[in-house]
């Protein structure tokens, strides 16, 4: 019986890219996206699906949820996971290069689509898009920590939720995947937080900037004013609660500083 062919690094990088895009329940050989990528890397859909479930066994989000992947993660799988944890940006670049290397010459060029829904694919042909692997992992962890609800309003539709970085992705590499550097916010509140229109005090109570407080529409009252001074919804796990140093940094360096922005869009 022939020995199994070892996975190449490029094949594993493609697998990690796909893992970052799919929910745990979609890691099966009938998934059209898995079928497509399996053909791309020269593996069977079953082999790729099994590899993805082995990768899942390394994912703290999966482990914390009580689910388990397969127990056959290889040394190479573990090494790549460590690379992802250590430097998500560099790892993402390697994933993009691996996909570019394995893509046929007549494939459409890659286009970065940061907000592409993770399971999106076309009916006529599978569109390959680059994804920030680390950011997808960060999103999984933050949404899991907050039970997939906006920590301000309680909105529970994942499509409308953003895993917001408290300190920007580019600022602190060592905290990029740490849920305590994240907030689960609706798309509206994520934009407001990113632009400094809202912030939080050291008690994690919502603050509104003077610019926002000056507005008088009903939407401002219903989406912002009624939550002013109220503490955000905290994660169940204390170690996932927002890092107060990061909250303070946002408040001191961004909150209320962009009073000249023209629109909230």
Describe the structure.
With 265 residues, the protein is mainly alpha-helical. The protein folds into two domains: 9-134, no CATH class; 146-253, no CATH class. It has helices at residues 9-21, 32-41, 45-56, 60-64, 75-86, 88-102, 133-145, 187-194, 210-213, 218-223, 244-253, and strands spanning 161-165, 182-186, 198-200, 206-208. It has a two-stranded antiparallel sheet. A two-stranded antiparallel sheet has the order 3-4. Strand 3 and strand 4 form a beta hairpin. Helix 1 packs across helix 3 (45-56) and helix 1 runs parallel beside helix 7 (133-145). The longest helix is centred in the middle third of the chain and has 15 residues, at 88-102. The protein starts with 8 loop residues before the first helix and ends in a 12-residue tail after the last helix. The model is unreliable at 105-131 and 260-265 (pLDDT under 50).
Brief descriptors of the model:
mainly alpha, single chain, two-stranded antiparallel ribbon, HNH nuclease domain-containing protein, 6% strand, HNH_nuc, 11 helices, disordered C terminus, 265 residues
């Amino acid at each position: 019986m022939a020995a199994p062919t070892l996975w190449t690094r490029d094949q594993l990088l493609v697998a990690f890219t796909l893992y970052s895009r799919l929910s745990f329940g979609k890691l099966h050989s009938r998934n059209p996206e898995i079928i497509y990528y399996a053909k791309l890397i020269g593996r069977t859909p079953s082999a790729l699906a099994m590899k993805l479930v082995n990768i899942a066994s390394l994912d703290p989000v999966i482990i914390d949820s009580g689910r388990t992947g397969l127990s056959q993660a290889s040394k190479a799988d573990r090494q790549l996971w460590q690379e992802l944890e250590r430097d998500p940006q560099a790892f993402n670049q390697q994933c993009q290069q691996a996909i570019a290397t394995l893509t046929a010459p007549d494939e459409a060029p890659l286009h970065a689509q940061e907000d592409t829904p993770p399971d999106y694919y076309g009916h006529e042909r599978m569109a390959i898009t680059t994804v920030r692997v680390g950011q997808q992992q960060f999103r999984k962890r933050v949404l899991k920590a907050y039970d997939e609800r906006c920590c301000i309003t309680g909105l529970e539709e994942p499509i409308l939720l953003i895993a917001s970085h408290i300190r920007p992705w580019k600022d602190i590499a060592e905290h990029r995947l740490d849920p305590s550097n994240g907030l689960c916010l609706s798309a509206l509140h994520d934009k407001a937080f990113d632009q400094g229109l809202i912030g939080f005090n050291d008690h994690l109570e919502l603050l509104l900037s003077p610019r926002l407080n000056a507005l008088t529409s009903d939407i401002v009252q219903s989406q912002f004013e009624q939550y002013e001074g109220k503490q955000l919804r905290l994660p169940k796990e204390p170690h996932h609660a927002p890092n107060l140093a990061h909250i303070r940094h946002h408040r001191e360096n961004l909150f209320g500083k962009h009073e000249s922005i023209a629109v909230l869009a």
